[in-house]
TrEMBL record:
It comes from Ferirhizobium litorale. Catalyzes the synthesis of 5,6-dihydrouridine (D), a modified base found in the D-loop of most tRNAs, via the reduction of the C5-C6 double bond in target uridines. Residues 1-292 form the DUS-like FMN-binding domain. CDD domains: DUS_like_FMN (cd02801). Pfam families: Dus. Belongs to the dus family. InterPro entries: Aldolase_TIM, DUS-like_FMN-bd, DUS_fam, DusB-like, tRNA-dHydroUridine_Synthase_C, tRNA_hU_synthase_CS. Its EC number is 1.3.1.-. The keyword Transmembrane helix does not apply. This is tRNA-dihydrouridine synthase. FMN binds at residues 53, 122, 152, 207-208. Its cofactor is FMN. Keywords: Flavoprotein, FMN, NADP, Nucleotide-binding, Oxidoreductase, RNA-binding, tRNA processing, tRNA-binding.
Length: 309
């Protein structure tokens, strides 16, 4: 969820009932090189436990970055072997590591050996349908000291097309004894129940389903659904938290996608030209006001419990 689950987003998700939140992936070599963006992604601001996700393609940089992350308050370090984005896989990181399990294990071992905090692993089923190797990698990762594994029920080549294969995740469950988290296409509490039953997993992770509703994980876990007034208030607060975190110029750009997701989900009848005007305005006060007004307006807002939650 690079570019999505920054600190303001995670703070809202945590407040509204998420059981665990994870940073955006932090590029290991860039962090060691003292890149400002990497340090911004590392911040936890009191979230407990503070779980940081590292990405990389070389064992040395993963180990060094893990030491930095631990020294700066991380309680858990997660290794990203699931991102399908071409920018990431083109650099032989993310899910591209699943194409070479031996190399992937070298990164895992370096990370585990570098720190005392628990190390976890997030990956997909495999690179493509002809290389479903998540069970093998998961077993070897557990042997190397990984203490929890998350599986997205698609291959890298599927990206986000089709439906996640919840049954295929069970093959990983059968290969490991550490806790397993299942991920992919969990939109409703019924989905959460079903993915747990079909995969044999211990918990559920949600990603894209939280875009435009940072409270979604909490709702899946039993929190009450929100009405339009609460949704409008949270969306506006989210926008203002981003202004505080990034500063005006950067925040106005970063927040556009979040504003768009809120409007798509909860004001679907809003004319496209009006939506574009709200999203592209550089006047932060205007955007905050129009976002709240629009989400509170019955003519545009969705009242359905299922959609609003």
């Amino acid at each position: 969820m690079s570019g999505v689950t920054d600190l303001p987003f995670r703070q809202l998700a945590w407040r509204h009932g998420a059981g665990l939140v994870v940073t955006e992936m932090v590029a290991s070599r860039e962090l060691v090189g003292n890149a400002n963006e990497s340090w911004a992604r590392l911040k936890g601001a009191g979230l407990d436990p503070h779980m940081v996700q590292l990405a990389g393609r070389e064992a040395y940089w993963m180990g060094e970055a893990a030491k930095i992350v631990e020294a700066n308050g991380a309680d858990i370090i997660d290794i990203n072997m699931g991102c399908p984005a071409k920018k990431v896989t083109g650099g032989y990181s993310g899910s591209a590591l699943m194409r070479d399990p031996d190399h992937a294990l070298s990164l895992i071992e370096a990370t585990v050996k570098a720190v005392k905090v628990p190390v976890t692993l997030k990956m997909r089923l495999g690179w493509d349908e002809n290389s479903i190797n998540a069970p093998e990698i998961a077993r070897r990762a557990e042997d190397a000291g990984v203490q929890l594994i998350t599986i997205h029920g698609r291959t890298r080549m599927q990206f986000y097309e089709g439906r996640a294969d919840w049954d295929a995740i069970r093959l990983v469950r059968e290969a490991i004894s550490v806790p397993l988290i299942a991920n992919g296409d969990v939109e409703t509490p019924q989905d959460a129940i079903e993915i747990l039953e079909r995969s044999g997993a211990d918990a559920v992770m949600v990603g894209r389903a939280c875009q435009g509703r940072p409270w979604h994980a909490g709702w899946l876990a039993g929190q009450a659904a929100l009405d339009s007034a609460n949704i409008a208030a949270i969306a506006t607060e989210h926008y203002e938290m981003m202004l505080d975190f990034y500063g005006l110029e950067v925040a106005v750009r970063h927040a556009r996608k979040h504003v768009g997701w809120y409007l798509e989900r909860f004001a679907p009848l809003l004319p496209a030209a009006v939506k574009a005007e709200i999203m592209t305005s550089k006047d932060a006060a205007h955007v905050a006001r129009r976002l709240r007004e629009t989400l509170e307006e019955p003519a545009f807002a969705i009242q359905s419990l299922k959609v609003a939650a």
